[in-house]
Amino acid sequence: MALAEDRLMEEAGFRMSEATAGDFFALLKPRVMSLVVFTAFVGLVAAPVAINPLLAMIAILAIAIGAGASGALNMWYDADIDAVMTRTAGRPVPAGRVTPGEALSFGLVLSVLSVMTLGVLVNWLSASLLAFTIFFYAVIYTMWLKRWTPQNIVIGGAAGAIPPVIGWAAVTGSVSLESVILFLIIFLWTPPHFWALALFKSDDYARAGIPMMPNVAGQASTRRQIFAYALILAPVGVLPWALGYTTAGYGVVSAVLGAGFVWYAWKVLAMAADDRAMKPAKALFGYSLLYLFAIFAAYLVDCVVGRALMMGGI
Fold first, then answer.
1. d(Cα 152, Cα 251) in Å, to the nearest integer?
2. pTM beyond 0.90
């Protein structure tokens, strides 16, 4: 009897979910979420006024849930191209462990929950920025930019760059130049980071029909653009010190990190056209992850230590 009912449900287009809690957690893109949470936390701590610790925890949790919602909606819509890319074929939706309907429902529920929680319990400016981020990533980037233009990462990078601004707004109820500079660091970091990945994963993107820069403009043009972005990113990373927001300690760390980014980008620029191993591109991709974590960690430490010294009267 039970088998007959299962067969009827499958014929009608329904099936029992095989998803586990781990599959739904994977929909949240936990690696991306961790970066979002960290940069948002830095923005929250860097804000010049204090926030109730409980509200701070609620804000970070809401931002994390919103980031996860974006990931779930992205995986729902991109299931077709994820299925043909070796890097993403094992994701829950293309692998068949989570149905598209489940992923969509999960993403929508989390989106509403995160925005309403942040708005009601913290403030509506930060909630509005979070809502915009989810919409921009899930609709503007995922449904449009990603499949239609090689500038997908350039424009779409705005979604990943907003979290520190949300963290700042959660504390202050406003947006400042300092938070915008944090946004710019991530925004300018995004193209060289993802184009480095696209250089050694170009076959994957070609199979999926995604117009990443190496597949559209060619590797030589992509390498030049990576280097150009590195040259812009390096001084922008030092701006917080130059404008007096941090101490010289951050200035030195950010300058060294920026010089390293330019060096790795130069190695990519100088890479031989027939270099199939793509070692310089892989090295830049790895270093770019270190760069973003390290520069925001340096900013965080500078803020915490600077305030401790001020409170101690030193």
1. 31
2. yes
